[in-house]
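dumping this here so i dont lose it
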């Protein structure tokens, strides 16, 4: 697929042939003062320049060695033609026009301009003293030098502008490539978080249903049917979440994620304990002591992260809530898969300048290195200016800190 820069270069190559119109000045002397030698010599010079121009345009890459030789040949052709055809000064103008587009260094371009103008002046001085066919008048010499300065100076501006435009196109191409990579990473990370958790729950419930069906008691069969109905519901939810992840995943909310985590852990035989260590806030729920599962509404109504009981705190932004929800989902998935834990404790802490989510379990994790899930979780948290730490002491302790955004002043 052609890039914007390659398309621009092809367009520039086509427009370069427009400059060829200036060769018309070569034919002024043969038309005004024709003789038997002037026309054949002028035509020979013209076709020689056609070949030079063709070589220059083909060498479209800036700084290509062929361009140097074509520019040198153009100027040499001007030196050879100028003494017997005043239109040969056109080749000096071509040389001055090509230089700024070939050399990036402005100092080098100006130095070459000065050197070429000096050579034209020397040639004019030499052939000014020669009478007859090879005579060069001072007016023609000074006009040639003047046109070199005007055309060359103007093209310096256009060359710099074109380079800036190419750099802008290159930056745009790079940004598009980086955006595509970032989007692929986002989809991969979100699919891992969504499907990893959901498929783990499906496997867990399917295994539980199989064990219950193997028993002969009617109550177990009833519960097995319930578990299988949950498998169907979760599978349908997973399909919807995959579609959302491809289009731009947004978490369903932290409170809903807590309720989903409770159901997942409960199916795995893990007791979820929710409490708050923030000053002045009573524990949300201790399911081990109370024996009551937190509902979606109760979790949302007393969760200090969602309600921001600290007066200066602002509510969670959608991005922050998504990051915390997916982190909780990934942590619960790891607990169910690897830990063999019996309890899981969630602590929400709001302090002076940050919020903290702590997820602890009493299991034993045989895997100590970070997988794709943990790496994706860390990338999300760090993109929000937060930190993630993982400790394996007596069980596993996952801690996430997010900076606390000050609440906007209200009138």
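and the seq i came up w/
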């Amino acid at each position: 697929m052609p890039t914007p820069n390659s398309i621009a270069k092809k367009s520039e190559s086509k427009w370069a042939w427009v400059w060829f119109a200036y060769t018309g000045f070569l034919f002024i002397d043969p038309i005004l003062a024709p003789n038997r030698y002037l026309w054949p010599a002028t035509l020979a010079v013209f076709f020689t320049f056609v070949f030079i121009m063709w070589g220059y345009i083909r060498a479209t890459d800036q700084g290509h060695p062929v361009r140097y030789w074509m520019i040198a040949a153009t100027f040499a052709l001007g030196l050879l033609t100028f003494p017997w055809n005043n239109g040969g000064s056109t080749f000096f103008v071509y040389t001055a026009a090509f230089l700024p587009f070939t050399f990036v260094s402005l100092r080098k371009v100006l130095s070459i301009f000065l050197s070429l103008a000096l050579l034209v002046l020397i040639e004019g001085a030499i052939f000014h003293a020669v009478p007859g066919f090879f005579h060069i008048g001072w007016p023609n010499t000074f006009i040639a030098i003047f046109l070199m300065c005007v055309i060359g100076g103007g093209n310096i501006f256009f060359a710099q502008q074109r380079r800036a435009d190419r750099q802008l196109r290159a930056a745009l191409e790079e940004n598009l490539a980086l955006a595509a990579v970032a989007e692929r990473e986002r989809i991969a990370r979100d699919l891992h978080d969504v499907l990893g958790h959901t498929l783990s729950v499906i496997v867990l419930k399917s295994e539980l249903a199989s064990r219950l069906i193997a028993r002969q008691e009617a109550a177990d069969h009833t519960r097995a049917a319930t578990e299988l109905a949950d498998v169907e519901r979760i599978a349908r939810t997973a399909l919807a979440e995959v579609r959302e992840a491809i289009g731009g995943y947004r978490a369903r909310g932290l409170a809903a994620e807590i309720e989903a985590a409770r159901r997942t852990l409960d199916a795995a035989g893990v007791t979820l304990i929710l409490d708050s260590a923030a000053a002045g806030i009573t524990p949300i729920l201790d399911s081990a002591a109370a024996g009551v599962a937190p509902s979606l509404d109760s979790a949302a109504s007393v969760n200090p992260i969602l309600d921001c009981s600290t007066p200066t705190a602002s509510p969670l932004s959608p991005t922050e809530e998504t990051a915390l929800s997916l982190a909780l989902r990934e942590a619960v998935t790891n607990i169910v898969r690897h830990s063999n834990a019996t309890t899981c404790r969630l602590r929400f802490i709001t302090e002076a300048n940050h919020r903290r989510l702590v997820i602890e379990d009493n299991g034993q994790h045989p895997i100590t290195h970070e997988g794709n899930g943990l790496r994706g979780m860390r990338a999300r948290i760090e993109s929000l200016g937060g930190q993630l730490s993982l400790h394996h002491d007596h069980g596993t302790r996952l801690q996430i800190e997010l900076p606390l955004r000050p609440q906007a002043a209200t009138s």
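The mean pLDDT is 75.
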